[in-house]
Amino acid sequence: MSRRDGSPRVSGAAYGRTDAVFETVYLILLGLMTLMAFRYTTMIPYDRLDWDYNTIRQLRLALAVFVGLKLAYERSWGPWELVLAAVLCASLIRSWQRVERLYVFELALLIAGAHGVDYRKILRVWCAVTAAALVGTVALALTGSIENLTYERDGHVRMALGSIYPTDFAAHVFFTAAGFAFLRGRRATYIEIAAYAVLAVVVLLVSDARNSAVCLGLLAGWLLIAARSRRRYGAWRPNAVTRGLCVAAGPVMAGGIIALSRVYTSRTPWMASLNRLLSGRLVYGRQAFNNLPLYLFGSDIQLVGRGGAVEEPESVFFLDSSYLYVLFLFGAAVLAAVLIGSVVSALRENRLRSWERLGILAIVSLHCLLEHHMLELSYNVFLLLPLAVRMPEAEDG
After folding, report:
1. Are 201 and 182 in contact (CB under 8 A)?
2. pLDDT 10s digits, 213-241
């Protein structure tokens, strides 16, 4: 839909900007919470940051009090925004009460607190923090200040470069690049696009992280197609099928991996081949359906992965797919709520004709198909955007 002057209509929260003071405080708290979350994904000991338990608890309390005050002060909530916030935040908080994963509670507060905040400022703060933290972590690992976990797979050396596992390092690279690309939108330059392609090669050579490498390659390819089309024809519009697939990417990915895991059997040749291609993810998914309870708001299941140490654990059972991870650990209600949020964000980009950003959201959904970082703030900033202010591309600064 468009206004009479032809500019795309702004949806939802874009109409109600929050107070500048509240916005500034939110961004400060977001930066601190992102840094704290990033720390948990690295080999940096707690004493290096001098953050004890009380400091972290006080930071969470400050966030909770701030969001409460912000919600009480604001009067710009629309009915659909209230429904979306209720669906997302209530499901996350109820799951936190059941599963006791504090980062889910923090995520609910940050989603609600993002209402009326300029999405560009959210992305700038988040990208600056994660990029600086990633560079700092890699520097500490290369200088020997923290452990650089090194693994081997099929003759390939895989380095984590200060993260707890090679794929975690690569996922940080991908999500930071995706966040920056989303911020840039159609203003992405050929140099930036080439940088994403180079990063794909780097994470493949350094960490042998194929999922992040493929997604970085898709990011570069999508933006390259958009840039060349705009330069050659003055405009670019993906066809209706492509746009539809991008909007529905989250639910399609979730439904596909859940269905395949539920019916998986090694006796079917094509399923066995697909399982090998996905590094055993269908086997673990089928085991989850066979052995784990499935609740509306999750259960405190025990997952054992390979991260954090080079010694191979006695038994490994981990749900790498975000959709299976969220389904079993946090519950069907949380998975449904998060997918609704992803569709709302994608529909908004489609309505604003922001095709670059629409494709980026789809690529993020694809990354979540094979890795479990969908609800982690230090990776996935896109969960904060459904209620943020989103202006048309032409008005982006």
Report:
1. no
2. 999 999 999 999 999 998 888 888 999 99
157 falls in which pLDDT band (50, 70, 90)? confident
pLDDT recorded at residue 93: 93
Taking the C-alpha atoms of residue 264 and residue 297, their distance in angstroms, rounded to an integer, is 25
How many distinct helices (H) and strands (E) make up the chain?
16, 2
At residue 15, does pLDDT exceed 50? no
Structure confidence at residue 307 as a pLDDT band (50, 70, 90): low
Q: What's the predicted TM-score (pTM) here?
A: 0.90
Q: Measure the CA dihedral 375/376/377/378, to 10°.
A: -150
- Give me 176's structure tokens: 């930071």
Helix 355-370 crosses helix 249-263 at what angle (to 10 degrees)?
20
d(CA 278, CA 285): 11
Count of C-beta atoms within a 10 Å radius of residue 72: 8
Helical segments of 185-318, H only: 190-207, 210-233, 240-247, 249-263, 269-277, 281-291
Residue 238 DSSP symbol? -
- Of 144, 18, 118, give the one whose Cα is nearest residue 77: 18
- 15-19, 100-104, 112-116, 238-242: least confident range: 15-19
Instruction: Name which of 307, 289, 279, 292 is nearest 370 in CA terms.
Output: 279
Burial 29-68 (b: 16+ CB within 10 A, else e): bbebbbbbbbbebbbbeeeeeeeeeeebeebbeebeebbe
* Cα–Cα nearest to 181, from 385, 359, 322: 359
Q: Which residue has the higher pLDDT, 18 or 91?
A: 91
Contact 119, 388 (CB under 8 A): yes
Q: What letter would DSSP give residue 114?
A: T
For 247-276, letters b (16+ CB in 10 Å) and e give bbbbbbbbeebbebbeebeeeeeebeeebe
Residue among 367, 324, 55 at smallest CA distance from 181: 367
* The pLDDT of residue 163: 94
Q: Which residue has the tokens 């966040």?
A: 179
Closest CA to 345 of 392, 375, 384, 396: 384
Spell out where the chain has E strands. Answer: 150-153, 156-159
111-117 average pLDDT score: 92
